[in-house]
Design brief:
single chain; about 450 residues; alpha/beta; Rossmann fold; six-stranded mixed beta sheet; about 40% helix
Length: about 450
């Protein structure tokens, strides 16, 4: 008979504890072995993310350098090398993540290629003895410069306020920096600024006012330069005046209960809500920059009025004649139209069509008048595009689908419409448009 022996109670408990301890040790070893690849995977994700960020910065820096070289008028390779390094260093500061090597530039006839690499130190991937990751970027531009005429048609209405206006000014200055590069002036690059609200300021030296104009009507002030819209289809085309009946009336906001003057005060008077004077096409960067700095916000929104004057400054005919003929194949023409809202026309507002109660748009109803302004905006957009002028449109902090759809339809194509919900995207938008126009000018 076989007998099964059993350990006493205390001895059984000790044996079980020793078995459990031995089992815990095995699990710990297994966990440690599994943890290493998990750490490496997490480290790879972090380090690859850092490398992607460096690659993006590197690409932007060589893009800026290539565009500057492509836009330069010099053919001296040492000077082009200096331009390339200056723009690369400015856009990829030494303190940024990643250690870049000196970018390499290759010029082959009209083609400029710039290539650069950067080493990124790893974090957790160093456990696997991967100490650095190397990223690279390359860009190509064509140095075949064509002429470019650009009209910046910019919303200066009261809804822009101070903050949005400053955001617009900063973004527009970046746009200029991209277009002009390191040049203060370029004979093949002409830029205009057309600030708009309910009217546009053409300047007090404007020669095409109706013969009934009398500056004494503005007394004790003087006419500031804003004009009314012409009647009929003439407020939707670039045709110059052919006689006294097709000229413009000076903008004079009446003295009434909404605008009681004299005395003329900063918030009352015949020129109330008249924006700063537009700038015709010029080749000088500082002149454009100064005009952008002068902009201020006041008044209602008549997008079509701003847009048609943007067209007129690009037009080769009167009232402005700085633009080249539409069929000049050596030049491209473009309008960049930015607004922060919808066309507006309330009973108390005054603009290029006077007061709503005057019925100059064929109605005294606000909603009908605003629909008419939208229709006229579309009509002007279509006429501009028919002349071969590119239109880029931007909505800034706009919540209205009506406005977004209007601007999307106005653009040359949907890729040239940009919705900017905040200041950062507005800057990115102006940067993207500036780069696209630079490529158009350099590459034809």
């Amino acid at each position: 008979m076989t007998r099964t022996e059993r350990l006493p109670g205390p001895r059984r408990a000790g044996a079980l504890r020793r078995f459990a301890q031995a089992r815990d040790g095995a699990i710990a070893i297994i966990f440690a072995l599994a943890l290493l690849p998990l750490l490496l995977a997490a480290g790879a994700a972090i380090d690859l993310g850092r490398a992607y960020m460096v690659k993006s910065r590197l690409g932007y820096a060589i893009d800026a350098a290539a565009l500057a070289v492509g836009a330069a008028t010099t053919t001296d390779e040492d000077e082009l090398e200096a331009i390339m390094l200056a723009f690369f260093d400015a856009n990829y500061p030494a303190q940024e993540l990643g250690v870049p090597a000196t970018p390499v530039m290759v010029i082959n006839d009209s083609e400029v290629t710039i290539y650069a690499t950067a080493d990124v130190s790893t974090t957790l991937m160093s456990i696997a003895q991967v100490e650095t990751l190397t990223v690279s970027a390359e860009t190509l531009v064509i140095r075949e410069t064509k002429g470019l005429e650009v009209a910046l048609v910019l919303d200066n209405t009261g809804s822009m306020g101070t903050t949005k206006m400053n955001d617009l000014k900063n973004a527009a200055q970046i746009f200029l920096d991209i277009l002009y590069g390191n040049e203060a002036e370029n004979e093949l690059l002409k830029v205009s600024v057309v600030p708009f609200a309910g009217t546009v300021n053409v300047g007090t030296s404007f020669r095409f006012l109706k013969t009934t104009f009398n500056n004494g009507d503005w007394s004790p002030d003087n006419w500031a330069g804003c004009v009314m819209a012409r009647s009929g289809a003439r407020d939707r085309n670039d045709a110059g005046p052919v006689d006294s009946t097709t000229r413009w009336d000076g903008y004079l906001k009446p003295s009434d209960r909404n605008n009681n003057w004299p005395p003329v005060r900063s918030y009352k008077g015949p020129n109330l809500d008249c924006p700063v004077e537009l700038l015709p096409l010029t080749t000088t960067k500082s002149t454009v920059s100064n005009k952008i700095t002068q902009m201020d916000s006041a008044g209602i929104t008549h997008i079509n009025v701003g847009l048609v004057w943007g067209w007129r400054v690009l037009s080769p005919g009167e009232p402005f004649t700085q633009g080249v003929p539409y069929d000049n194949e050596e030049y491209n023409k473009a309008i960049v139209l930015m607004t922060d809202g919808e066309n507006t026309f309330s009973s108390s507002s005054y603009g290029a069509y006077g007061y709503l109660s005057e019925g100059r748009l064929g109605t005294t109803r606000s909603s009908t008048a605003e629909n008419t302004l939208d229709s006229r905006t579309t009509e002007v957009c279509d006429a501009i595009k028919a002349e071969g002028i590119l239109i880029y449109t931007i909505t800034f902090q706009v919540s209205s689908n009506t406005s977004r759809n209007l601007m999307r339809g106005c653009a040359t194509d949907t890729s040239k419409y940009f919705d900017s919900p905040n200041a950062a995207t507005l800057t990115q938008t102006f940067r993207a448009i500036g780069k696209e126009l630079s490529n158009l000018r350099i590459g034809g």
